[in-house]
Design goal:
Helix content is about 10%, strand content about 45%. By secondary structure, it is mainly beta. The longest helix has 8 residues, at about 55-65. The protein is globular.
Length: about 100
């Protein structure tokens, strides 16, 4: 299975669910040991978070660049009130990545 959900269609009703997403890297940011990947598909963008607990996938996330095509497995969590992004349809949630496959670089 390539994906269980479209990235841009995720919202707070998915909190706690394991999801599989596929799409393009719109942006990657490294903020002091936590890597944020904005994953884009035809429905929109969702933030995927990789922390060191993701092991080899954390290291792999560090290597991705814009427009890489990824398949990401993760768990949807609510963002803290301070990190909610009202400018994104998916701004109330983030997907915490537990596995990743680079489909195309």
């Amino acid at each position: 299975m390539l994906r269980t959900h479209d990235a841009g269609a995720l919202n707070s009703t998915a909190i706690g669910n394991k999801v599989v997403l596929a799409g393009w890297v719109a942006r990657r940011r490294d903020h002091g040991g936590v890597i944020f990947v904005d994953l884009r598909d035809r429905e929109g963008i969702v933030q995927v978070v990789f922390d060191p607990d993701a092991g080899e996938f954390f290291e792999q996330a560090d290597s991705v660049r814009s427009e890489y095509v990824l398949k990401v497995t993760g768990k949807v969590r609510a963002r803290s009130e301070a990190t909610v992004n009202p400018n994104m349809a998916t701004g109330e949630i983030a997907d915490y990545g537990t596995a990743m496959e680079i489909l195309n670089s």
